[in-house]
Amino acid sequence: MEKVSQLHxxxxxxxxxxxxxxxxxxxxxxxxxxVVLSLIRHLDESLFDxxxxxxxxxxxxxxLKKLDIPLHFVNIYGxxxxxxxxxIYRIVKRGSFNLVHGHNSFAGLFTRIAVRLQGRTxxxxxxxxxxxxxxxxxxxxxxxxxxxxIPFFLLERLTDRMVFxxxxxxxxxxxxxxxxxxxxxxxxxxxxxxxxxxxxxxxxFRREIGASPxxxxxxxxxxxxxxxxxxxxxxxMKILIPRCSxxxxxxxxxxxxxxxxxxxxxxxxxxxRLKFTGSVxxxxxxxxxxDAAVLPSLFEGLSITLLxxxxxxxxxxxxxxxxxxxxxxxxxxxxxxxxxxxxxxxxTILRLYEQPEMRxxxxxxxxxxxxxxxxxxxxxNKYSQxxxxxxxx
Length: 393
Description:
7-stranded parallel sheet, Rossmann fold, single chain, globular, 42% helix, 15% strand
């Protein structure tokens, strides 16, 4: 796909390229990482000169090396790597960057301190998850959440522009006081994805998982961690199996809680009606094999998996959280169910299972909504305008 840009010389922008330092650990294959990778790939090289700070390992390292941009390897993933501040300071000082654009929680901590120690280079920070959503204990305790999030909120004072990936996330952040929030913008995540040989890939994937042509395959592409509501999906499958003779659940992905979820599936006696495939690098080989898709997350920033489902034209069942509702609408491009309620999830799946006309309608609306609102072109153009604005200020 060609580089994306709608910025022209007629708009009185400088002829010089804007030099940007991007910061992202790239330690996993999650949605945040795929968004940043897509952003870098599609920025207009005639306008922007990109360098990247990232970790030296991780599942996407080979993809990063193919970008043909300078890579600076700094350990910025863990909260104890404070020597990263000095390393980032030196990179920023040598680089003469017009602005810094960062992602990730502790990378944000180290980078903003380093940049401000160096000078007044403009900083853009994209919040993919709000700080209090980083851990279970920060979600459960208001007091501990407040203690944990104060440093991150103070860092907002060192940030020239805070970017939120959804209006829902920005609204939630604005509701947390103190401190007040200013200089914000919403830029929805966008993806670039192409499903080729859809029918062929559908048949291939279904053969791999042992699904017959008449099996109703319900897919859940996810990172296997507590946030993603995988336990709710497993319990819903336990309810559905006695009522639907040809239904099969498929969980695609890996993560820190994988052993726990596999053990739960075994304890629920789901047998061969529930498959774990492990991690899959090319999602376009998986999604075509689903008849419907599930996203039962407890909370999200703005789910890339949800966009991938929509781009593939799948009927979707998603947890009724503000960010999911913002993406699919009020049961317009997907059906919503009460968060964490396996009975509600099972009943919603059953409605979709029994109504092929509804599946077709939802699938059509999902693809339309993706093309209108959540493409990489839309995302990159908004970031490009923001870069030009801040670099020229």
